[in-house]
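Q&A log
Question type: sequence-to-structure
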Amino acid sequence: MKKLIYIVAISATLATTSCTDYLDSENLYGKNTENFYKTPTDINEAMAGVYNAIYIQNAMSEEQLAANLLDNMMLGGGGPDDKAAKWVDNFEDPLEDTYRDMWVQSYYGITRANAIIDKTPAADFSKYFTTVAEADNFKKQAIGEALFMRAFFNFRLAKFFGGVPLINSLDADRMVGRATYTETFARIATDLKAAIESLPATPFPSIPTASYGHANKWVAEAYMARVYLFYTGYMTNIEQKATTDLPLVDGKTLSAADVTAYLNDCMTNSGHALASDFRNLWPYSYVNKSAGKTVLPWAATENLSWVGQDGATPTFGTGNKETMFVQRFSFGDWNWTNGPMYTNRLALFTGMRDNSLVPFGTGWGMGTVSPKLWNNWADADPRKVGSIIQVGKAEQGTDGYKGDKGDHETGYFNKKYTSLQHPNAANSNVGMFVQMYKWGNADMQLMHAQDFIFMRYADVLLMHSEITKTATGMNAVRSRAGLLPIAYSLDAIKEERLHEFAFEALHWYDIVRWGDVKTAFSDSFPVRNSGTDAIYSAKYRAETKGLLPIPETEIRLSNGVYTQNPGW
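Response status: OK
Response body:
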């Protein structure tokens, strides 16, 4: 069974109570910033703490849930009392702190990364390795990973909040105001550039399975392209300040050609590749094998076979070269410390509400799928049925679906990330991952151990096409779906990204950076709200410029240093 490393406070980087004291030294177990970061074990523990900051307590503050609910392809859904999902979906924040956990956890991650970046260069690891070169490579890997993760957290903040306070070292001023949008992205790009230069160029299939899930050079190169497209698109289409360059801290810039070179390196040398079948990326393609019999007839008819989620040599599945960077999940006990935040809540929250079927188990019914996406998607594209659950279909195991259990019901649910179950030896329906890993606690709210994919190789190909305005990468993705090649156009890229990445928390960012967010919410259509006919519509407010509110608690704690985003 895969495990997460849960880190207790081992240094000043891991103990926090407010935005003003998350670097206060707390000498737990005799460890602090002066005597820690001295051994490879110290660094590995500290790095685990950096990654641990990805996990967020408040579900609506979690990137993958928030970005999907904000998007026009997912509705709020849930039950009548699930107001938070509807608030996110409708661009409201009556509690004023909906996204505070995202803010706080991101700064925890940044602070922990700062500690590694600041302390590791002076450490001498030579006695722990056979050669000086090995010790030096370990140091470069650690610093490169920390630089990437600092960029990752700053980028997560910038996508949602715009310009944010930049805290770039352990001794930096904690009460600085918000940097400009451009200054924030300059920091992100500079850190990514340094990470790319520090991380080794080890082909993905040669990276040990034990290191799977860690950032590497190829992930940093892919993220540089994502950052480039988001910044140049946002500045051009939202701020109306057209640019084709990504700024760096030293005043220099990265051009489209520079970013293309990073992508070319990734495509040529990373060892990543597309899975042979798009549908094999998702664990529903494994449910028949896990059950030992056909419980999803469609998957059997299509001869689906899961690639797995542990890299090139997974515990389950045939081997996955496409997935590049993920959030890993595991199992825990039901409590508010290590239970819900370590299970894949996108799968739990967007599962079918109060419908325990086989192979699709029950969930909370949030994020129901817009019928517009289903109706406008060509049936010839296998990604359509590969991405969307259609209720009332025997071949999909949904013929027993009972409606009117929740709000914003459309008859369509997310299939990529959803609850999966099948009968066990006692003929009781139990979560697929629970049975795979032989875990004792079968609580339906803790059984979702599916990785959330932040970056996969298909995005490298589509970003390459968008930046170079050529069709090669786009048509490689289309060919994998059995579709004919087409000429490059931005409209073609838009459609391809929608169909390739539906429900992967990317489309919201895409429509923002393209400026399409201004018109994406003009539709209304019939839904069922817990048994009552209703008309759904979302009210995007252009004055927000696609940004979320700075948490009011953070504004108060800053004593007015932070300014609120427009429209909030």
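Response note: The longest helix spans residues 132-161.
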